[in-house]
Write a structure and sequence with these properties.
Chain lengths: 255, 255
């Protein structure tokens, strides 16, 4: 019996943003492997399907466990929030393959993409990612803070819209404030800053402010932070939250 | 009768990557507005539903037309390839609102996210976007080439993985070669370059090479180009295309 492994993107949370391809992959699996909070989102529908839940910060162990199960002939689905390729389980699985049993390289493995958080967050507010943008994880669990600062500086230098993943957690309460301070040195105070929590779910919450006033304490681990480019702007609406967008057309930037 | 407008992300093309929310939005519309090639993807299912097809390069006209129909009380779906917020129709619609009839600001409008091309392309090959990355459109129809060069330089400076949208078209055959030349000045020759055409469809085609050998002629308007960060690498597999990934863990970068 030959096993397989699929790394499935669950999207932002609501089932109507789970692709049919991802739903099929979950149905076809004999074993679901994932962070307990993500597994809890999947209804128990298949009798005999096994669930292997683990904590948030053990991606490498989880990836090895999933590969071991697949090598034993199980049909494994590793579940990932958002898209598996964006600060999620796809890189963890390939890392485990590289460092692990050579037989793992011959396994039938594929990735099912999903709606990543910045797309859902952008959709809540208009089109803030309408021009060139970058995505940076603020977690320094796996990379030096100096690398994060270098990327923030480069993003400001290139006038990219910036999407910040993992802006804060209980273990890392200070990074976002440091990132705002760094950006204040080179971006105008009126630069638009958005905090979008639980985008595309019934709990969605949006805070719109600017870089001068942005308070890092607004963010938690379920928040995606978007920092505008110089052209990003608000379109006011009567009795509704303004639209935020970054125009496609850009003028020559004077350096 | 009160109209509405939804900007719907169709994803990369195959119906099993269209979210249920996007499919519902298409079903609920009285009028579908979009680039003819995207409208052709949607099966004719609803009797009486009107279709308004237009060419690829008339986004602003299309956005105004859609807003006019919504203001007349129609339930309009503007269709967009990939995700509407990434180099697609969401920014065009908000731009048209900003410049248009003040009554358009009061319309019921929302955005349905989709799987954008870089996520589908990444899923084809492993996890190339596994660390910090940026997305740049190489089209200079709406921004000066100098702005694009500034962003490419900043992306290299920050050691981001780079996803290039709109790398080439019949009207713009030279941009990608110029972008490669610019990046060759600051990134190592062995930097991984991926050309992914029609990702997540039956016509998907992948070319893996490096920056020294990358030939811009491989790309067309249906190709997404990914240029690795310094850590992006290949994992060889017997008889199969290698995996490509960017490790989550990064060492201190010596500047």
């Amino acid at each position: 019996m030959s096993g397989s492994l699929v790394i499935v993107g669950l999207g932002p949370g609501s089932s109507d943003l789970l692709t049919p391809a991802a739903a099929s992959a979950l149905h076809a699996a004999t074993d679901l492997v994932g962070y307990d909070r993500y597994l809890d989102r999947i209804p128990e529908i298949i009798v005999g399907q096994r669930r292997h839940a683990s904590g948030n910060r053990v991606e490498t162990d989880r990836a090895r466990h999933a590969l071991t199960l697949a090598a034993e002939g199980r049909k494994v689905a590793v579940v990932s929030g958002g898209d598996p390729g964006v600060f999620a389980m796809a890189a963890a699985v390939v890392e485990a393959i590289e460092a692990g049993d050579p037989a793992w390289r011959e396994l039938d493995i594929h990735v099912e993409p999903g709606i990543t958080a910045m797309l859902a967050a952008a959709a809540e507010v208009g089109a803030p990612l309408g021009a060139d943008f970058c995505a940076i994880s603020l977690s320094d669990n796996l990379k030096p803070w100096q690398t994060i600062e270098r990327r923030l500086r480069a993003a400001a230098e290139g006038d990219f819209v910036i999407a910040l993943y993992n802006p804060a957690s209980l273990a890392r309460p200070h990074q976002l404030g440091r990132a705002f301070d760094l950006l204040r040195a080179s971006k105008p105070p009126q630069t638009i800053v958005l905090f979008v929590r639980c985008a595309a779910t019934t709990e969605a919450r949006v805070v719109m402010t600017d870089l001068a006033k942005a308070d890092a304490a607004v963010a938690d681990m379920r928040t995606l932070v978007i920092i505008g480019a110089s052209a990003t702007r608000l379109i006011s609406r009567k009795g509704q939250r303004p639209w935020v967008y970054t125009p496609r057309a850009e003028q020559q930037v004077v350096r």
